[in-house]
Write a structure and sequence with these properties.
Helix content is about 30%, strand content about 25%. It is α/β, with parallel strands linked by helices. The strands form 5 sheets. Strands 1, 2, 3, 4, 5, 6, 17 and 18 form an 8-stranded mixed beta sheet that branches. Strands 8-15-9-10-11 form a 5-stranded parallel beta sheet. It has a 5-stranded antiparallel beta sheet with strand order 19-20-23-22-21, with helices on both faces. Helix 2 packs antiparallel against helix 3 and helix 2 crosses helix 4. The longest helix is centred in the N-terminal third of the chain and has 26 residues. The chain starts with a strand and ends in an 11-residue tail after the last helix.
Length: about 475
């Protein structure tokens, strides 16, 4: 049995917890997977490194619409893949070597562990680890539906599809959420014939209803979309695969070289034995934590055990995990002066084509909480601004929701060019409590920048102007 001052399960955001504070103490970091976690190896970083070149490829069609002749001669898939993972794999390996060999106070375990008690872990190899403090940061994994053929060669998840040997000619993507929609944009832009299959009647249904509808319409112009279709099974078919679906009681078949299953992710907590210890879990399997990121059991904090990231929140966003890691790091080092996690205005972005960004309540959520009479709503098209004219944009929209009584933003939802950038000042306004009228009227908004669409949306909400509001 080896005792540590701190044991961290997971090498993603949890890896950042090892600060100078622990130099004179014993630390264990435990990860049976690829060092660096989901975001670095199979998530936000490699996917966005594919997204950018895909955007360049897709710009050819955009240029033609505006009278500029450009050609797309194809993508060097192997070159793209090797450039991206040549960089990422090197970072992962360097981080692993640093933790394993360069820090005398840190021991790296590269095997699975499970809880024996609230202070003891057991490795797959039979080693016992005890610790004064344990942080659960085990991330999540792709969900695979239970359908025949799901384990056939050629069926991939987001964990493996980016390392394909070659760009597939035909790809079927199962799922209607952000992972499926991002990969549909990437592979279709790079030259694959893509069909995105969703069991419901719209893509991105977790978004505001107007954004979901607008994105679904935009997606159908860029790649194949099959809605209200349920997967029945996948079969070997010649050199490829055959996806069997059902819609309205009728069979539907699609041939593919590659099938990407992107139907969601589940926390890895089920592999730790935490339920047997009485830890509180949400319906999705994630740990329930308090405002200080302490794991709860029967509603009470468990001494010395913290959770962060996909294992302990519902957002499954890297920027949330990073914030949680900073909170956990402080609270581990300052147990008598702990600070809470601030979860105000958590934003998210989908780097598909077009982009989506959102923060706060959807219209349905806002009206359910505040009542119909109290909620103001506006949809401002990109094409209503000078820069939107220059782009000849017919898709982009900014949707804002505000409380009529307080003049504060309740939610912001953007679909279109650089939505993830345009939403940032709205996030800051919600966090700071800045009113809609102050935000719209006090700072100058550069003309004719695309950000004017946000200014016009704020003005268009129609929040009553008070005597103290700027003109």
């Amino acid at each position: 049995m080896t005792h540590y001052d701190l044991a961290i399960i997971g090498s993603g955001s949890g890896n950042s917890l090892i600060t100078e504070h622990w130099d004179g103490k014993k630390v264990a970091i435990i990860d049976a997977g690829t060092f660096g976690g989901t975001c670095l190896n199979v998530g936000c970083i490699p996917t966005k490194m594919f997204v950018y070149p895909a955007q360049l490829a897709a710009s050819v069609a955009e240029a033609k619409r505006l009278g500029v002749s450009m050609t797309f001669e194809g993508a060097d898939w192997a070159g793209l893949r090797d450039r991206i993972f040549g960089r990422i794999d090197s970072i992962s390996e360097s981080g692993k070597n640093y933790r394993a060999h360069e820090l005398e106070n840190v021991t790296l375990y590269t095997e699975h562990v499970s809880f024996i008690s609230r202070t003891e872990l057991n490795t797959a190899g039979g080693q016992s680890i005890t610790a004064d403090n344990i942080v659960i940061a085990t991330g999540s994994r792709a969900v695979l539906p239970e359908v025949p053929g799901i384990d056939l060669p050629g069926v991939h998840t987001s964990d493996t599809v980016m390392r394909l040997d070659e760009l597939p000619r035909r790809m079927v993507i199962l799922g209607g959420g952000y992972i499926a929609s991002e990969f549909a944009a990437v592979f279709s832009a790079l030259g694959s014939e893509v069909i995105q299959v969703n069991r419901s009647g719209a893509l991105m249904r977790q978004q505001d209803a107007d954004i979901s509808a607008a994105f679904t319409q935009a997606a159908t112009k860029r790649w194949g979309v099959e809605l209200n279709a349920a997967v029945q099974g996948i079969e070997k078919h010649g050199d490829g695969l055959l996806v069997r679906l059902e819609r309205d009681g009728k069979p539907l078949e699609m041939a593919a070289d590659v099938v990407l299953v992107a139907t969601g992710r589940t926390p890895n907590t089920d592999r730790l034995g935490v339920a047997d210890l009485g830890f509180d879990l949400r319906d999705d399997g994630s740990l329930v934590v308090d405002e200080y990121q302490r794991v709860l059991a029967s509603g009470e904090p468990v001494q010395g055990i913290f959770g962060l990231g996909d294992a302990a929140n519902i957002e499954q966003l890297k920027h949330v995990a990073n914030r949680e890691a900073r909170v956990v790091a402080h609270n581990l080092e300052n147990p008598d002066a702990m600070r809470p996690m601030d979860r105000r205005a958590v934003p998210a972005a989908v780097f598909s084509n077009p982009q989506i960004a959102s923060v706060g309540a959807t219209e349905a959520q806002a009206r359910a909480e505040h009542g119909d009479e109290a909620v103001l709503s506006v949809i401002q098209p990109y094409g209503s601004t000078a820069y939107g004219w220059a782009m000849e944009d017919e898709e982009g929209i900014v949707k804002l929701l505000a409380c009529k009584d307080t003049g504060l933003l309740l939610g912001a939802h953007i679909m279109g060019h650089e939505a993830s950038l345009l939403i940032q000042p709205l996030i800051q306004a919600m966090v700071s409590g800045m009113s809609v009228n102050t935000m719209a009227r006090e700072p100058f908004w550069i003309h004719p920048a695309l950000s004017e669409v946000v200014e016009n949306a704020l003005l268009g909400l129609g929040v009553p102007v008070g005597d103290s509001d700027p003109l």
